[in-house]
Write a structure and sequence with these properties.
Blueprint: H1 12-20, H2 25-33, H3 36-49, H4 66-91, H5 103-111, H6 119-132, H7 135-146, E1 154-155, E2 171-175, E3 180-184, E4 192-193, E5 204-213, E6 216-226, E7 239-243, E8 256-260, E9 263-266, E10 275-277, E11 283-285, H8 295-325, H9 344-379, H10 386-414, H11 426-436, H12 443-462, H13 473-476, H14 489-516, H15 521-527, H16 529-555, H17 561-581, H18 583-589, H19 594-611, H20 615-620, H21 626-629, H22 640-649, H23 660-670
Parallel strand pairs: 1-5, 2-5
Antiparallel strand pairs: 2-3, 3-9, 4-8, 5-6, 7-8, 10-11
Helix pairs in contact: 2-3, 6-7, 6-8, 8-9, 8-10, 8-11, 9-10, 9-16, 9-17, 9-19, 10-11, 10-12, 10-16, 12-14, 12-16, 14-15, 14-16, 14-17, 14-18, 16-17, 17-19
This protein binds tetradecanoyl-COA and flavin-adenine dinucleotide.
Tetradecanoyl-COA binds near residues 123, 291, 298, 439 and 440.
Protein name: Acyl-coenzyme A oxidase
GO cellular component, one term: peroxisome
Organism: Manduca sexta (Tobacco hawkmoth)
Length: about 675
């Protein structure tokens, strides 16, 4: 389906895999896109946008110097932005996707092998204007931001603090005389650090600072701050700004630092939807919940689940296609070398990646729908659903990013040495996704936020109070005792909830026992955090298993029998994989027996064999074009070795037969003249 060029011969092994696939690949693509019409529109947009010659770099990006890389990324960002502005919106296709559309994000990957320096502008600056500004402020800033006159980022993290937002040190002190805020960085550790695009690209940013007025501090609030001249792009007086240097990934994102020396901004540059400063300096709090200024972070956490699902789908596509093309070793003496996809261990490494990409995408779609409900509630002044949603989005962000990063690395391992090549694109996909585990809330920190909610929910269950939907299972498993074992999919999901309940119960006991010894609650909590993180992980795993299973059943209700069968095989594989991964927990909290464990393992291995003939069809169904995959190993036609050689020849070191270092150093060394 993705054979967009359609001219070159497809590798014979891949062609045979496709001929033997048991289902119509397009049917699964339509399911994943949310309907055939969405697929048609997406493909039209891709055909329309991915033809430009700016996509082809003569020298691979990774062979450029940091400065050249950045300049190339800015060039492409501007051309991409212009394309979106001039043509794509006129095209009118985007609306059909609704707000959960990732088509722009998807095609952006064809333009940037790494990150666009403008990602934070669209990803965080614009959403924060929408979420944190009054209507009047929005009408001032949104048109300028959307027309790219104002280019911004989100500068919250400082050198000294990222996680602990209340510990941020940048101050914004209100001066009623001039009706301005004075921004100041009192220490080195108060310098803003990390914001994407801040180093060189943006002219504005959202700065999160401690608000002081009338001698009192009211905690952190967001402000819109101009940092560079719109004409010359020079940093404005009182601003110290620069780029933070090379990183594991994100090397085209010019992440930056920023310090203020008593820098003044108008009063109305405070984002005033949730709190206001009146002209005389009076502070007015409008946020009854107290954490509404954290809204952009919650939004991005929701987006990130989809983001990592897509990246895992890319990695799985590359690794599965490569594994169908690659032949290595022999199974029996004298036999031809098998496709490495025929090794059961290879299937074990890869099929869970396909299943997890589905699980995370369906969970992300469900999370988005839940989020839309919460946003509607908030618009009507109701914030009751926020604590549960914060707990849910925190753990899903933590687990999805962690799973995706580990599995993408597994895809790289499964491609042997060639997976280590930058041209495979697996290192870049990994470097991007491993950062998601840290940014927008570190893994451990977010799971502890979820744990906080779970412990409270447990206490509510004990008190016989009603529970919110995602923790209502606690009532069922409230009584001590092992969860009955049943090896059906539904039974495994129930057992996953039973494990989560057992772990939460164990945490409650640990904390209470520690408090009984005279420890404060905070110390008892602190000593129990290893268990609390594991409990939050178990809760989140149960939610993903549950949502994946039920959404896959719902989605495939009208599918052909073959599609329903393969989708069911994948969900069952996911559930068995995690049951086996957490077998110790099941033995502790459920009635699973030794024979059941043997049966689980056997079924898992049967599923690998059942999925094997459809593996290439399943990754083809992700329908990720070659331009977006950007991989020598994963292209649709399977010309792996030809592409590896073509890319190698583009290396600047191959531009001349002898490098000057030979004459400068090697030759003198060889001749003893160095
Ligand atoms: C266009 C598409 C783009 C997509 C791609 C994206 C790529 C973009 C690239 C992105 C690049 C990267 C960009 C970046 O990285 S931007 C920087 C991101 N930074 C972070 O994420 C920092 C993480 N830290 C925190 O969120 C807070 O400090 C935490 C939460 C840890 C504590 O906070 P705090 O110290 O203030 O809390 P507390 O202890 O006083 O109180 C805890 C109480 O507060 C409740 N609570 C806490 N938080 C929330 C909440 N949010 N909604 C509702 N409630 C919330 C909580 O339930 C608890 O309630 P209770 O138990 O007391 O009842
Ligand atoms: C690629 C990238 C892009 C980024 N972009 C931006 C951006 O655009 N804007 C922005 O504002 N920020 C950005 N950040 C910063 C990012 O949000 C923070 O790095 C992140 O929130 C983690 O905070 P930290 O660095 O302070 O880690 P720390 O909090 O110092 O974490 C270090 C370790 O301490 C542990 N730890 C910390 N607190 C606790 C606790 N309470 N309990 C248990 N363990 C704890 C953590 O689990 C971790 O293991 C970016 C970061 C990266 C990597």
């Amino acid at each position: 389906m993705s054979d967009n060029k359609g001219v070159r011969r497809v590798n014979e092994d891949l062609a045979r895999e496709r001929a033997n696939c048991s289902f119509d690949v397009r049917e699964i693509t339509f399911l994943l896109d949310g309907g055939e019409n969405n697929t048609i529109t997406r493909k039209k947009i891709e055909d329309f946008t991915l033809t430009d010659e700016l996509l082809s770099d003569k020298v691979p990006d990774e062979c450029l110097s940091p400065k050249e890389k950045y300049e190339n990324a800015v060039r492409k960002s501007c051309l991409f932005g212009k394309l979106v502005k001039d043509k794509l919106l006129e095209f009118g296709g985007l609306e059909t996707f609704g707000p959960n559309s990732f088509v722009l994000r998807r095609i952006a990957d064809a333009f940037f092998k790494e990150i666009s320096p403008l990602l934070l502008h669209l990803g965080m600056f614009v959403p924060t204007i929408l979420g944190q500004c009054t209507a009047e402020q929005q009408s001032e800033w949104l048109p300028r931001a959307l027309s790219m006159q104002v280019i911004g980022t989100y500068a919250q993290t400082e050198l000294g603090h990222g996680t602990f937002i209340r510990g941020l040190e940048t101050t914004a002190t209100y001066d009623p005389e001039t009706e301005e805020f004075v921004l100041h960085s009192p220490t080195l550790s108060s310098f803003k650090w990390w914001a994407g695009g801040l180093g060189k690209t943006v002219n504005h940013c959202i700065v999160v600072a401690q608000l002081h007025t009338k001698g009192q501090c009211h905690g952190t609030h967001p402000f819109i701050v101009q940092i560079r001249d719109l004409e010359t792009h020079q940093p404005l007086p009182g601003i110290k700004v620069g780029e933070i240097g090379p990183k594991l990934g994100f090397n085209t994102a010019d992440n930056g630092f920023l310090g203020f020396d008593k820098y003044r901004i108008p009063r109305m540059n405070m984002m005033m939807k949730n709190a206001q400063i009146l002209k005389d300096g009076t502070y007015v709090k409008l946020d009854r919940h107290g954490k509404m200024t954290y809204g952009t972070m919650v939004f991005i956490r929701v987006m990130v689940v989809n983001e990592v699902a897509f990246n895992l789908a890319k990695a799985a596509t590359i690794a599965v296609r490569y594994s169908a093309v690659r032949r290595q070793s022999e199974k029996k003496p004298g036999e031809p070398e098998p496709q490495i996809l025929d090794y059961v261990t290879q299937q074990h490494k890869l099929f869970i990646c396909i299943a997890t990409a589905h699980a995370l995408q369906l969970t992300s779609d469900w999370l988005w729908r839940t989020f839309s409900g919460v946003v509607t509630d908030i618009k009507h002044g109701k914030t009751d659903s926020l604590p549960e949603f914060h707990a849910l989005s925190s753990c899903l962000k933590a687990i999805s990013t962690s799973d995706a990063a580990l599995l993408i690395e597994q895809c790289r391992h499964s491609c042997g040495g060639h997976g280590y090549m930058m041209s495979s694109n697996l290192p870049l996909i990994y470097s991007f996704v491993t950062a998601t585990r840290t940014y927008e809330g570190d893994y451990t920190v977010l799971l502890l936020q979820t744990a906080r909610f779970l412990i409270k929910a447990w206490e509510q269950a004990e008190a016989g109070k009603p529970l919110t939907p995602t923790v209502s299972y606690l009532t069922k498993y409230f009584k001590d005792g092992r969860v009955p074992w049943d090896s059906t999919s539904e039974g495994i999901v129930n057992a996953a909830y039973g494990v989560a309940a057992g772990k939460i119960s164990a945490c409650v006991k640990s904390i209470r026992n520690r408090v009984k010894t005279g420890l404060s609650y905070e110390d008892a909590w602190d000593l129990t955090t290893v268990q609390l993180v594991a409990a939050a992980e178990a809760h989140c795993r149960a939610v993903i298993c549950d949502v994946y299973r039920s959404e896959a059943v719902r989605l495939t209700e009208k599918s052909s029998p073959n599609v329903r069968a393969v989708m069911r095989q994948l969900t069952t594989l996911y559930l068995h994989y995690w049951a086996l991964e957490r077998i110790g927990d099941l033995l502790r909290y459920s009635a699973v027996s030794e024979e059941d464990v043997v049966a689980l393992q056997q079924k898992y291995e049967e599923l690998l064999a059942l999925i094997r003939p459809d593996a290439v069809g399943l990754v083809d169904a992700f329908d990720i074009r070659d331009e977006i995959l950007n991989s020598t190993l994963g292209a649709y036609d399977g010309r792996v070795y030809e592409r590896l050689m073509e890319e190698a020849l583009k290396s600047p070191l191959n531009a001349e037969p002898v490098n000057r270092s030979f004459h400068m150093y090697l030759k003198p060394l060889m001749q003893g003249k160095l």
